[in-house]
């Protein structure tokens, strides 16, 4: 049965002195409502933040000229993605015009682009102090607080926004995402349902409802909501991936397959979807296509352990030893105490012709097997060491 990704343990099964199969034990990927929302871009419920230009009506001509120079310089740094440099010019602009809220929101936006969400929130607060009913400022504040994992404050910010305009569906979605992080599933559901009442054609709201049902293992309701989202907006890769997970949980990989294919077509960086697609294709015997999707999965998420393991196994079977070495080295960084990973890395190194490194690595695997009291692993590693030492002695 093909199951959604979510590795909990790794079992090792031996095949003589050949490749050790690393078999992941899968559990559903999304076990809580908060984790479900994490997978989707709807969690914070925010519109795109746009860098605003400052108002200059009350300034002297000299001040306007100076401000224009500073903002032009800031824009050059923004165009070069030098946000720290742009912030410095915006700070100078504040010295010219401290009253303009758009300068504060501009600094906030740039801090958010740098991932400094606490600083972004502080500057959005200062912008709001100067223009309290500006909805983009309030969205920026709520989004920044959410990204800073200050969920209680984010929920409060979304509620404040809704006090100004109750018809903001995106704010209801953001409130729902914040409440999920606070483990208030009932509150989140009410917020999402409010978003649908405000905007019955809001695909994000239906996706949020679907993922909430998913996390509660109410798959029929989840599927209904997700399919409704898909009808409203067929370009949401996360919806296709979520529907595929439901079909995998129900052991229907044939129905998951087209959903996964569309998901990765829309967003190739969905590593878990790439992995799940590879698993289905491999089970169908389409080895070349499976290999391609394993490669894409680890390209975008190198620490996706099951994908690295499957990729390494396929590369070893195809005698592509250099690439197998790279895959197992990555795995060994993630799973340094896993003897099976060391064992397979040794096989790849041996196939590459690096006999001494292969022996050193299989000896590391032996030590780990001994430490873990894995008798089968100890026997397998000892046998391989003996064979390889004989080969090394023969070729001296």
Please report the number of helical segments: 20
Q: What is the string of SSEs from the N terminus onward? A: EEHHHHHHHHHHHHHHHHHHHH
Unreliable spans: 1-18, 21-33, 39-43
Average pLDDT taken over every residue: 88
Q: Major β-sheet, in short? A: 2 strands, antiparallel
Instruction: Tell me the helix content.
Output: over 70%
- Biggest sheet strand order reads 1-2
Radius of gyration: 27 Å
Task: Please describe what this structure looks like.
Keywords: Repeat, Signal, TPR repeat. This is Tetratricopeptide repeat protein. Residues 1-20 form the signal peptide. By secondary structure, the protein is mainly alpha-helical. It contains 20 helices and 2 strands. It has helices at 33-38, 61-79, 83-96, 101-113, 117-130, 135-147, 151-164, 169-181, 185-198, 203-215, 219-232, 237-249, 253-266, 271-283, 287-300, 305-317, 321-334, 339-352, 355-371, 375-394, and strands at residues 7-13, 21-26. A two-stranded antiparallel sheet has the order 1-2. Strand 1 (7-13) and strand 2 form a beta hairpin. Helix 18 packs antiparallel against helix 19 (355-371).
Explain briefly what this protein structure is.
The protein is mainly α and about 400 residues long. The protein has 20 helices and two strands. Strand 1 and strand 2 form a beta hairpin.
Secondary structure layout:
Elements: E1 7-13, E2 21-26, H1 33-38, H2 61-79, H3 83-96, H4 101-113, H5 117-130, H6 135-147, H7 151-164, H8 169-181, H9 185-198, H10 203-215, H11 219-232, H12 237-249, H13 253-266, H14 271-283, H15 287-300, H16 305-317, H17 321-334, H18 339-352, H19 355-371, H20 375-394
Antiparallel strand pairs: 1-2
């Amino acid at each position: 049965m093909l199951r959604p990704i979510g590795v909990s343990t790794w079992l090792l099964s031996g095949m003589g002195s050949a490749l050790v199969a690393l078999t992941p034990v899968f559990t559903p990927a999304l076990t809580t409502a908060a984790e479900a929302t994490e997978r989707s871009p709807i969690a914070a419920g925010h519109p795109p933040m746009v860098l605003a230009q400052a108002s200059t009506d009350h300034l002297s001509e000299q001040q306007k000229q100076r401000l224009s120079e500073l903002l032009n310089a800031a824009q050059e740094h923004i165009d070069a993605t030098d946000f720290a440099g742009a912030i410095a010019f915006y700070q100078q602009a504040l010295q010219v015009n401290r009253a303009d809220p758009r300068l504060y929101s501009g600094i906030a936006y740039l801090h958010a682009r740098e991932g400094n969400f606490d600083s972004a929130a502080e500057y959005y607060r200062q912008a709001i102090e100067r223009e309290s009913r500006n909805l983009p400022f309030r969205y920026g504040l709520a989004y920044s607080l959410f990204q800073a994992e200050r969920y209680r404050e984010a929920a409060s910010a979304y509620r404040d926004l809704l006090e100004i305009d109750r018809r903001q569906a995106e704010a209801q979605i953001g409130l729902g995402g914040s409440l999920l992080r606070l483990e208030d599933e009932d509150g989140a559901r009410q917020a999402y349902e409010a978003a649908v009442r405000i905007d019955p054609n809001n695909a994000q709201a239906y996706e949020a409802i679907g993922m909430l049902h998913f996390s509660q293992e109410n798959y029929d309701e989840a599927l209904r909501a997700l399919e409704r989202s898909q009808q409203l907006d067929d370009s949401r890769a996360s919806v296709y991936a979520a529907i595929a997970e439901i079909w995998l949980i129900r052991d229907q990989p044939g129905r998951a397959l087209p959903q996964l294919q569309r998901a990765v077509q829309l967003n190739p960086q969905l590593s878990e979807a790439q992995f799940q697609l590879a698993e289905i294709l491999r089970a169908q015997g389409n080895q070349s296509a499976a290999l391609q999707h394993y490669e894409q999965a680890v390209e975008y998420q190198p620490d996706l352990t099951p994908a690295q393991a499957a990729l390494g196994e396929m590369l070893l079977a195809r005698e592509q030893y250099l690439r197998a070495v790279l895959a197992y080295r990555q795995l060994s960084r993630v799973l340094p105490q896993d003897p099976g990973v060391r064992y397979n890395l040794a096989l790849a190194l041996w196939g590459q012709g690096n006999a001494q490194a292969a022996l050193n690595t299989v000896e590391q695997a032996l030590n780990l097997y001994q430490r873990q009291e894995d008798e089968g692993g100890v026997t397998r590693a000892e046998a391989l060491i003996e064979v390889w030492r004989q080969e090394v002695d023969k070729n001296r």
